[in-house]
Design a protein that fits this description.
The complex is a heterodimer. Chain A contains no helices and eleven strands. By secondary structure, chain A is an all-beta fold. In chain A, strands 2, 4, 5, 6, 9, 10 and 11 form a seven-stranded mixed beta sheet that branches. A four-stranded antiparallel beta sheet of chain A has the order 1-3-8-7, with no helix packed on it. In chain A, a hairpin with a 2-residue loop joins strand 5 and strand 6. By secondary structure, chain B is mainly beta. Helices cover about 0% and strands about 60% of the residues of chain B. Chain B is built from no helices and eleven strands. In chain B, a hairpin with a 4-residue loop joins strand 7 and strand 8. The radius of gyration of chain B is 13 Å and the shape is globular. The relative contact order of chain B is 0.33. The chains are: A mainly beta, B mainly beta. At the A-B interface, strand 5 and strand 10 of A face strand 5 and strand 10 of B.
């Protein structure tokens, strides 16, 4: 059974460029979460979806960040334009039902130069 | 403000010893989660606690939830080196807000 799949695993780009992170949740899961993890700020919830609808996006840092879930099997997190302070590990997680344990992907390590 | 506080933030313990990690939260919730993260890796779910008095055990780890005290504990029994990791608690507050604690770095020394 495939877990949560994130791509790319690593991304290095220059500031000002657009960055798109991708996530495929576990089939049948109806909740999808995006997180950012840094040494300074720890693990932060950015946004989560239920049945492809955003439920809480209060963690999205600013308008440069946007997330979409066009269907049940795919989500994107986009940063435009990117800045060095966006460098972090971004995790995607999914769960079946809001009370279930979250299954995390391996993360995308993003470096903005 | 919705807060989740873990303590200690860093724990160094000898193999074979027992210890407890605490997770306090600021307001009403009956949904609490514990996760483990190894260095450079993703997070792994350990326990889901959904009601007052819930207790779950897996191996040397036991988690409990007291919703009245707004407190969860993660108890480690007879620690072994393989338990070295960072442990997070997370609380799903009413109003659909999910907040993670800062994490407890556990180092078990042989």
């Amino acid at each position: 059974d495939a877990g949560v799949i994130q791509s790319p695993r690593h991304e290095v780009t220059e500031m000002g460029q657009e960055v798109t992170l991708r996530c495929k949740p576990i089939s049948g899961h109806d909740y999808l979460f995006w997180y950012r993890q840094t040494m300074m700020r720890g693990l932060e919830l950015l946004i989560y979806f239920n049945n492809n609808v955003p439920i809480d996006d209060s963690g999205m840092p600013e308008d440069r960040f946007s997330a979409k879930m066009p269907n049940a099997s795919f989500s994107t997190l986009k940063i435009q334009p990117s800045e060095p302070r966006d460098s972090a590990v971004y995790f995607c997680a999914s769960t079946g039902g809001v009370t279930g344990p979250q299954h995390f992907g391996d993360g995308t390590r993003l470096s903005i130069l | 403000e919705l807060k989740v506080e873990q303590n200690p933030l860093f724990l160094s313990m000898q193999e074979g010893k027992n210890y407890t990690i605490y997770c306090n939260y600021s307001t009403t919730s009956d949904r609490l989660y514990w996760y483990r993260q190894d260095p450079g890796k993703s997070l792994e779910s350990l326990f889901v606690l959904l009601s007052n008095g819930a207790v779950k055990q897996e191996g040397r780890l036991m988690a409990s939830l007291d919703t009245k005290a707004r407190l969860s504990t993660l108890h480690i029994t007879a620690a072994v080196h393989d338990l070295s990791a960072t442990y997070f608690c997370a609380v799903f507050f009413y109003g659909n807000k999910l907040v993670f604690g800062a994490g407890t770095i556990l180092r078990v020394k042989s």
